[in-house]
């Protein structure tokens, strides 16, 4: 930028910001106008890719250093892993001219990145890759913090535009957790949402409410022995259900030299604050 402002919304070509502010004009992120003066501006229609962006993005953490894994290598790693498992949209070609991952946004620290997939279904399918090993490193795959599932109102439009997609583990973008996903238990009474990009939900509870409240229904569980083979997700679910029922939530005698951690997702917000 050379400091000049393009014409539009009260700005004159080549006029500096200081001059415009001196004339009482303010910049709102879109253009310059008189303070307090309403503007009639046609709202720009968002594209299907923009509308579905948060549902097509995936967080990948615990990445190796950039010197070992650059963005292109990261992209190829996930495309290969998805294709080998048959989790890609078979109606779409996977090639340099038609990539499954259309964007890689790496954090400046290099420790994590966002992957933008071409379809919601492929992004949802990628959730099953959490824990995948890259050399000696176990990668973390999760939804982004601003993840938003596709609404029922937008679904037909985005499906027609081809951004919903379809895979073996996420038919028409719906969430299906596969049995070979490491560390995931299929919990009785909890079904997988059929909303595109949605997460596990409780029967009778609107998916949108489940997604909005998911963070406040999660609690951190630490000091779990790494060398305890019985600590499966199924065992932990039964253990904490029984412990919470008995109001005995802490074992003071539990200790161990090495620890790992896990998240238990509660059914309601109230349980999460116990």
UniProtKB/TrEMBL annotation:
<keyword id="KW-0508">mRNA splicing</keyword>
<dbReference type="GO" id="GO:0003723">
    <property type="term" value="F:RNA binding"/>
</dbReference>
<dbReference type="InterPro" id="IPR012677">
    <property type="entry name" value="Nucleotide-bd_a/b_plait_sf"/>
</dbReference>
<keyword id="KW-0507">mRNA processing</keyword>
<dbReference type="GO" id="GO:0006397">
    <property type="term" value="P:mRNA processing"/>
</dbReference>
<dbReference type="InterPro" id="IPR035979">
    <property type="entry name" value="RBD_domain_sf"/>
</dbReference>
<keyword id="KW-0694">RNA-binding</keyword>
<feature type="domain" description="RRM">
    <location>
        <begin position="56"/>
        <end position="146"/>
    </location>
</feature>
<dbReference type="GO" id="GO:0008380">
    <property type="term" value="P:RNA splicing"/>
</dbReference>
<feature type="domain" description="RRM">
    <location>
        <begin position="217"/>
        <end position="274"/>
    </location>
</feature>
<protein>
    <recommendedName>
        <fullName>RRM domain-containing protein</fullName>
    </recommendedName>
</protein>
<dbReference type="InterPro" id="IPR000504">
    <property type="entry name" value="RRM_dom"/>
</dbReference>
